[in-house]
Amino acid sequence: MALKCDITPFEFWDYTVAEVTDLINAYTERQQQEMKFEALCSYNNAMLVINGVNNLFSKKPKQPLQIWEVFDGLFDKPKQVHQQSKEEIMKARLLAYNEAWKKQHRKG
Predict the structure, then answer these.
(1) How many Å is the Cα radius of gyration of the chain?
(2) DSSP 3-state assignment of 94?
(3) Which alpha helices (DSSP H) does the chain contain, by range?
(4) Across-strand partners of 51?
(5) Residue pair 70/44 in contact by the 8 Å Cβ criterion
(6) Spatial CA neighbour of 79 closest among 89, 63, 68
(7) CA pair distance 9, 2, nearest whole angstrom
(8) pTM of the entire structure?
(9) Residue 51 contacts residue 69 (beta carbons within 8 Å)
(10) Beta strands in the chain (DSSP E)
(11) Tens-digit pLDDT string for the chain (108 aa)
């Protein structure tokens, strides 16, 4: 069992029985936490797929949940200022492209 818990044979003989027991218990808890995390990810993924499919066949589709709504506390809601700045950058790029296109085609 100790080898499955990443305890080398040399470490095993250096530890006391209580320390080996603690390491094995910690390993078991860590494995359970990882399994719970994977189950939670699978469940959340399934729920998002179910909601998406329901929206395809619904007469009144709902707005899909955003990542900060699904994982509350893990992700912060983005600020509107950031979104506006992206739109302003895109608008400036389009205007610059439009002006360059006009100049190129007027000379022709």
Answers:
(1) 28
(2) helix
(3) 9-14, 17-57, 67-70, 80-107
(4) none
(5) yes
(6) 68
(7) 8
(8) 0.51
(9) no
(10) none
(11) 777 788 888 888 888 899 889 989 999 999 999 999 999 889 888 988 988 898 888 888 887 778 788 777 777 787 765 556 778 888 888 999 898 888 888 865
Find out whether 2 and 24 touch, Cβ atoms under 8 Å: yes
Q: Tokens 């994982």, residue? A: 71
The rounded distance, in Å, linking the Cα atoms of 33 and 24 is: 14
Distance CA 96, CA 69 (A): 37
Task: Extract the tokens encoding 61.
Answer: 């589709």
Burial class for 48, CB neighbours closer than 10 Å (0-12, 13-18, 19+): middle
Cross-strand bridge partners of residue 72: 75
